[in-house]
Amino acid sequence: MPSRDKAIDNRIHDVMMRCEKLAASRANFNSDLVSRRNQRRPRLRHVGLAGHSDDEPIDHCPHGRRICPVVLDCIRIAHGIHDRRRGHRLRGLRKSGSGDAEKNKNYVSHRESALAVATDFMSNSANHNWSAVVAAGPSASSAVADDAPATVETIRHLYVHIPFCARICPYCAFYKDLLDRSQTARFCEALLRDLDKQCAAFDISAKTIYFGGGTPTALTTSQLEFLLEGFHQRLDLSALEEWTIEANPGSVSARKAALLAKLKVNRISLGVQSWDDGLLKILGREHNASQAEKSFHTLRDAGFRNINIDLMFGLPGQSTEQWKTTLEKTIALLPEHISAYCLTYEEDTEFFLRQSRGELKANPDWDASLFEMTMSILEDFGYEQYEISNYARPGFSSVHNRAYWSGEDYLGIGPSAFSTVGMRRWQNLADYRGYADRVLSRQSPIGSTENLNSEMKRAERIALLLRTREGISAALLNDRPQTIEEFVGLSLLRQSNGNFVLTQKGKSLADSVAEAFL
Ligand code: SF4
Q: Which of 26, 137, 150, 345 is most buried, by CB atoms within 10 Å?
C-alpha cells in the first residue's frame, strides 16, 4: 500500500505497479479497468474486478486484501502516467505533516512562476457527459447540497446512452460505435425494454433526463419520436425540469429540432468544439463551422431557450488567437451555457498513438494560459464558472450535473451507462449489440457491480464538490484542519459562506488539492 504522505505522482506510480502485479497473479483482475476511461460516469471511479458474472457484487477487498487505497480517479492516474512519459506536469502537493507544508509552498510557487499547471481539471473525457441540463427555476440556482445524501426510494435522474456516431473522432475515448442504420431500430426497442425493467424495479419520478452518447441525434427523426414517446408513456414527467439531448451539428435538422421541442426536451448540448474549419478537420469532426452556426439557429428557431455549446482548447496547431476568436464567436451567439474542455490524449485513441509517435505534443503551460483566458473572458461576459469546465448565465447551470456532483442517485440506461443507487453502483455492458441481445432476451445487461462504502462516497463528494463554485462545507473537511490551514495559506482555498472553495490559483490544481483531502 503506498504511503499516503508520499507525493501524489509517486503514489500513483505505486498504485499502478501494485495493480499490475495483481493482474499478473489474479486471473480475473483486469488492469485495463484501472486506466480505461471510455464509459460515462461521474468523474470518480474505483478499481473493480472483471470477469464476474452479471449482477455479482464486486467489493474492494477480494480475499481480504484491499487492492487500492480508498478511491482512484482513473483519469488522474492515466494523466500521472502520461505526465511521467512526458517528464512533465507532475503533481506534488502533499498532505500536511512535518516538512511537507514547506514543500507544498515551494511547489505552488514553482508552479505559479512556471505556469505549469495541471490540466486534468478540465479534460474532455472527464466532462463529455457532464455538459448537462439547464432549467430555470429555483433548483437551478440553488447551491449544491453538501450534506450526505440520503438513499432515496425515488429516482429523479436518468442518463441514456446512445453510442452511434457518423464518424469516430480520433481523440474520443467514450464508448461509441459507427452508426449502423440496420441496428438502430432494434437498439431503441432495447432501450425502452430496459426502461420498462427500471420502472418495475424503482419508483422513478424524473426531474432530469440526459440523452448522451455517442450522438443521440444520429438517430432518425422517427426513431427519436419512438424513443421519446416511449419515455412519455412509461414515466411520470410531471416533475421534469430538464431534458437534455446532446446534438452533433452534422445531424440537426429543423424537423428533428421541432420534434424534440414538441416532446418536452428543453435543453440541447451542441458539440461545436471549434469555429475553425481547419481545427475541426484535425479533430475529425463531421461538421464545419457554418453547419454548426446553422444548427444553432435551427435550434433557436425551434424554440430552444437553453442551449449549451461544447468547446475544446489545447488543440494541435491551435493558436491563442484562434481560441480567443472561438470564445468570442460563441459569446456572440448568446448560448445560455458553455462547456470548455482541454484536449487530453486518451489511451486507445488515434491521438494518443500519434502523441506516442511524437507527431502530436501536449503543451500544458499553454493549456493553462488558455484556461486562464477562458475563465477571464467568459466571466467578463456574464458566464458564471459554476464548475471548473462549465460556465452558465445566471439560472442556467445544469441541474442534472449538479445532481451527480451532490451525490444524488441516478439510473443509467443503455450500453456502458453507470447507475448509482444508495451504496451500489453498476455499469451496463459497453457493447450495444450485446446490450440489446441481453435486454431483448430478458437477461440483465449489467456488466459489473460495485458496493460503495461511506468513505468512498465521502471521497467522491470532496473531489466533485471541490470543482464547483459553492465548494465543500467546512464540516466535510473538519478532520483536516492542518491541510485546510496550509492550503488557505497557499491561496489555493478560501472560505465563502461557511464553505471552502478553490481560488483561481487553486482551480489550476483542483485534483491535487482534492487528493490531499482523500
Ligand atoms: S461525435 Fe462525440 S462521441 Fe462521437 S466520436 Fe466524436 S467525440 Fe466521440
A: 345
Tally of domains within the chain: 2
Q: Do 392 and 494 reside in the same domain of the chain?
A: no
Peptide bond into 92 cis (omega under 30): no
242 pLDDT more than 50: yes
From the CA of 166, how far away is ligand 1's center (Å)? 9
Q: Which residue's CA is the nearest one to ligand 1's atom 8?
A: 172
**Does position 98 have pLDDT exceeding 60, yes or no?**
no
Beta strands (DSSP E) in 380-512 are: 384-387, 390-392, 411-413, 418-421, 424-428, 446-451, 472-473, 493-496, 499-502
Tell me the per-residue pLDDT of 295-352, one tens digit each, with 9 for 90 and over: 999 999 999 999 999 999 999 999 999 999 999 999 999 999 999 999 999 988 999 9
Q: Is residue 73 part of a domain?
A: no
Rounded to 10 degrees, the C-alpha dihedral 507/510/513/517 comes to 130
pLDDT band of 508, cuts 50, 70, 90: confident
Question: Which range, of 101-105, 155-159, 179-183, 370-374, averages the lowest pLDDT?
Answer: 101-105
Q: Identity (one letter) of the amino acid at 408?
A: E
Q: Tell how far the Cα of 317 is from the centroid of ligand 1, in angstroms.
A: 20
Q: pLDDT at position 466, please?
A: 92
Domain's final residue, options 387, 405, 423: 405
Asked whether 414 lines ligand 1 (CB < 6 A), one says no
Furthest-apart CA atoms within the chain: distance in Å: 65
φ, ψ of residue 61 in degrees (nearest 5): -130, 60
Q: Is residue 356 part of a domain?
A: yes
pLDDT at residue 12 greater than cutoff 50:
no
Q: Residue 107's pLDDT is what?
A: 53
Distance CA 139, CA 151 (A): 19
Say if residues 261 and 303 touch (Cβ distance below 8 Å). yes
> Residue 204 burial by CB count (10 A; 0-12/13-18/19+): exposed, middle or buried?
middle
**Residue 482's domain spans which residues?**
471-518
Pocket mutation for ligand 1, best pick of 215, 281, 312 (most atoms within 8 Å of C-beta): 215
Of 131, 162, 172, best ligand 1 pocket probe by most atoms within 8 Å of the beta carbon: 172
| 131 Cβ below 6 A of ligand 1 | no
Domain's final residue, options 405, 422, 445: 405
Q: How far apart are the first and last CA of the chain?
A: 15
Least confident of 127-131, 226-230, 238-242: 127-131
* pLDDT band per the 50, 70, 90 thresholds, residue 50: very low
Q: Which of 125, 175, 176 to mutate to test the pocket of ligand 1 (most atoms within 8 A of CB)?
A: 176
Residue with cell 455499469: 427
> Residue of the nearest CA to atom 3 in ligand 1?
214
The ipTM estimated for the assembled molecules is 0.99
